[in-house]
Amino acid sequence: MNSPLISIVTAVYNHEKYLDDYFHSIMRQSYKNIELILINDASTDQSLVIIETWLPKLEERFKKMTFISRKENKGLVFNCNEGIEIAEGKYIALFASDDIMMVTNLEEKVNYLEQNLNKAMVCSDVYYGKNFHAKKHSITNPKLFNKTIFQRLIDQGNFIFAPSVVVRKNVLLEVGKYNNKYPMEDYPMWLEISRNYEIGYISKPLIFYRLSENSLSRDVEKFRIMVESHMEILIDMEKKYKCDISKGINSLYTMAAVFFYSNEVKYYQEYRKKINKTNMKIIVIDMLIQLKITAKHLRWVKNRMKI
Cα separation of 146 and 140, whole Å? Predict the structure, then answer.
């Protein structure tokens, strides 16, 4: 029995530091029947030079190899959608050029989907970190992946690591590919898929997910944009599917408040006011803020008494 073709779609933008690791990992895949679609999205570093040195090996290794090098940056969503259209595989793995696949990643996921015809896609646990040698293991609760996963994604936010996903191409086409309306391109896709299909899960870390050096934790404004985009997605889902987003909104604002307590207290107060139901995290933060205010007041009194 012939193994089905799987298409890896990767858009590269200024990842010169990580490309060798990425190429080594996809070249070493135990699964053999692979198509590679590689798009250089007008990188301004040495990414194109590195890619060109790898092309002969890539063309030899993969069943089919397509390389596109752009002179104008088109963005991730555009490249993902073009890759989906070009792909000839039954399955698609949209994989970032700074991440790494474990050797059996594609083999285990293709086998899973071949054996579970009711699943539209499958994801897995991941290793993560800024450096592969200092990796950590993210463990996901398997109970999240049941028939109510759509509502769980609404209530708890996006708990699916995009690079860990392998999805059926026909499903991506049916839900309309990726939407460039939102900065968070993968979350609305998982919502659309989970609304109509079941999603599989492998409780094993099969990829290394690299944390960006330009993390959101260092950029307050980018984090605010992400929060507002997440809110917009929830509102759009409510309008489209008449679903209950109240728990998801409260969870989102709680996450934002916790983040901004450490980064920008004025924004903490903004999101704190929007939380309908407090939890232990918010109670503790409120207590810490009150303690700070009390300590500040005591210092003021002490200084006044010295006059």
Answer: 13
In angstroms, the CA 47 to CA 22 distance is 12
152: DSSP letter: H
Instruction: Report the range of poorest mean pLDDT among 58-67, 228-237, 274-283.
Output: 274-283
pLDDT surpassing 90 at residue 36: yes
d(CA 82, CA 67): 12
Cβ burial of 170 (10 Å; 0-12, 13-18, 19+) is exposed
Compute the average pLDDT of residues 290-307: 54
Helix axes 246-263, 220-241, angle to 10 degrees: 180
Query: Are 257 and 282 spatial neighbours (Cβ–Cβ below 8 Å)?
Result: yes
What is the DSSP-derived secondary structure letter of residue 178?
A: -
Please write the tens of the pLDDT for every residue from 158-194. 999 999 999 999 999 999 999 989 888 899 999 999 9
Q: Any residues with CB less than 8 A from the CB of 65 and at least 6 apart, and which?
A: 35, 36, 38, 55, 58, 59
Residues 200 and 123 sit within 8 Å (Cβ to Cβ): yes
Question: Phi and psi at residue 178, in whole multiples of 5°?
Answer: -90, 145
Query: Average pLDDT in the 63-68 region?
Result: 97
* Residue 209 identity: Y
